[in-house]
């Protein structure tokens, strides 16, 4: 199969997306990979698979590659003798953060009828925003960590006991996130968060909380990853967190009871189906007093969480054959015809 | 000002969008209009303003016009001597239903840096889905009509007393909507609704409920329309409802107290700001026992609700100068450089 890897984007996680994309070479070995780079100013470039490395981008050398135009049916090179479609079977959206996770890439792919692996637009809009993720989870009967919500112009007052964790609602990867240990630190942490977003959520910071990650997708059947207990630090800063994005070797399953595993998987399935069909996502859960709480949805997880799956490449292939179809709407101009004939009679 | 009217789309409301678009000629008289038609199969065509009429589309004659390509900075004609940008100052998104209201057009315009009047992607995703609209309103402290939610595979059981109204969550314009007077009619009404959508909401049907529409936008100040009490029928079917889309003459303000008007306007503002900045929307409210309840948000109202505003054209001009700016994200490859220098040392 020929998989087009879409990466880069106008995002704080642009560089991380490059790391994720390069990692795919190591884990999608049987497939042909077609690399399509979205530059920081949102031009599309075809990048030769053999040449790909991080320096190609930081040096700006990628600009020597072919520039592409997105049109109905795919990406095209434009030349003297007309335009030529870049051949591939499916795109894999690997753009983390803005553009990739907020629904723009999903919209583009759907509008131009390009088959794609990614959360669809609506799933993206809800999971990109941590406040809307709360609404979604609640409506599906999945519990989340308790929270408060503040907008930029709200009075800076919270009800919750300290320590708390402050998160901009729309960004991934710990950007703008702070742990606030006492009231005197609140103002500064909010200043930082509001640098990045108009809205924040505030959650209790639960020291030593048990955290488990579950990734997966629905092909012709459920394909769930192992449950991972991620390595613990107080919280991961941008750089540490993103060494993760080059991961390509399998990790061990968390040592948990079958009952807990079952609870985590049930919660994952509730979130995933049907909204996230067509995508591979990772959900991060907390377990507090034996209760499974959704912490966050990673709609485009680092390196697609490949290291959690026994057969990542096979799964990508199966998923590409099980993508949701857009409903066909036929436009037959009945209504306009009927107005015209009514006018004709008048 | 030169306003590009974007209309058509792959939508059940494709034809209605054509009617809305033609109406703009009658209400945007001082502006230059550039008509860009999105065909049912999502190709872009430039349509000459003098030639525009409904038959041009139903006959397929629009295909003789210039086809356009959407690229960074705008829509382009492609010819022997390279591509040429279609000149305009701003696009006005007039695509009702799918593509226009679900966030796809907003995504396209934002991605390709084309200035546009329309709800942005996140606002679109939330207001296109009546269930998510409930979540949104609740989080903003705006009350809505009570409801139940059913997915396609759920048991077909409701708690509410009859009569009820069944609405597919994602469609506008009364498509798939039924009033159900007793339990024996429920199954058929759900069959109809599930033809169009995977999810429905069920609300009490309140006979003779007072309904009021408020449209508006935020330019350098609030520009709120008069409050309209729409003419009443049991409920409007597709055709009747859409005679509305060709409206171009002012209507009278509803005869309500200043206090009620103030409540309606406060609710409108809570919904609108900041999520809907850059758009002209209409909110439809019910008043039950003196309480103002949001019934629905019309993110792209028929003919832009022009007939509710004293100076529609002036408002469009002012709004085009007050569009929200996307946050600029600069990518400097610091992270990749630091990995490279770390590797170099190893």
Automatic annotation (TrEMBL), chains A, B:
Transmembrane segments: none annotated. Belongs to the D-alanine--D-alanine ligase family. The gene is ddl. PROSITE patterns: ATP_GRASP (PS50975), DALA_DALA_LIGASE_1 (PS00843), DALA_DALA_LIGASE_2 (PS00844). Its cofactor is Mg(2+); Mn(2+). GO terms for molecular function: ATP binding; D-alanine-D-alanine ligase activity; metal ion binding. It is an enzyme of class 6 (ligase). PANTHER family: D-ALANINE--D-ALANINE LIGASE, D-ALANINE--D-ALANINE LIGASE B. This is D-alanine--D-alanine ligase. Its main location: cytoplasm. It comes from the Bacteria. Cell wall formation. GO terms for cellular component: cytoplasm. Residues 134-328 form the ATP-grasp domain. Pathway: Cell wall biogenesis; peptidoglycan biosynthesis. Keywords: ATP-binding, Cell shape, Cell wall biogenesis/degradation, Cytoplasm, Ligase, Nucleotide-binding, Peptidoglycan synthesis. One of its GO terms (biological process) is peptidoglycan biosynthetic process. It catalyses: 2 D-alanine + ATP = D-alanyl-D-alanine + ADP + phosphate + H(+).
């Amino acid at each position: 199969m020929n998989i087009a890897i879409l990466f880069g984007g106008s995002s704080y996680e642009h560089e991380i997306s490059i790391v994720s994309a390069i990692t795919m070479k190591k884990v999608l070995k049987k497939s042909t990979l077609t690399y399509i780079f979205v530059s920081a100013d949102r031009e599309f470039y075809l990048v030769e698979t053999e040449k790909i490395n991080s320096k190609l981008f930081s040096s700006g050398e990628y600009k020597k590659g072919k520039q592409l135009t997105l049109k109905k049916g795919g990406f095209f090179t434009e030349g003297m003798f007309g335009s030529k479609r870049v051949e591939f079977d499916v795109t894999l959206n690997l753009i983390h953060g803005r553009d990739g996770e907020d629904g723009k890439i999903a919209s583009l792919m759907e509008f131009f009828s390009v088959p794609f692996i990614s959360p669809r637009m609506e799933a993206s809009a809800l999971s990109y925003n941590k406040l809307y993720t709360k609404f979604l989870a609640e409506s599906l009967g999945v519990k989340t960590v308790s929270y408060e919500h503040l907008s930029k112009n709200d009075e800076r007052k919270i009800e919750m006991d300290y320590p708390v964790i402050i998160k901009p609602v729309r960004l991934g990867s710990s950007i703008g996130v702070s742990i606030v240990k006492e009231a005197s630190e609140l103002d500064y942490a909010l200043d930082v968060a509001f640098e990045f977003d108009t809205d924040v959520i505030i959650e209790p910071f639960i020291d030593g909380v048990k955290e488990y990650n579950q990734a997966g997708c629905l092909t012709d059947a459920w394909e769930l990853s192992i449950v991972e207990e991620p390595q613990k630090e107080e919280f991961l800063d941008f750089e540490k967190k993103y060494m993760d994005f080059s991961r390509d070797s399998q990790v061990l399953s968390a040592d948990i009871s079958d009952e807990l595993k079952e609870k985590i998987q049930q919660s994952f399935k509730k979130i995933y189906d049907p909204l996230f069909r067509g995508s591979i996502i990772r959900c991060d859960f907390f377990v507090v007093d034996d209760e499974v709480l959704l912490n966050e949805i990673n709609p485009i997880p680092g390196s697609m969480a490949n290291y959690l799956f026994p057969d990542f490449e096979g799964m990508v292939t199966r998923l590409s054959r099980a993508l949701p179809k857009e409903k066909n709407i036929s436009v037959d101009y009945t209504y306009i015809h009927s107005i015209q004939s009514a006018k004709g009679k008048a």
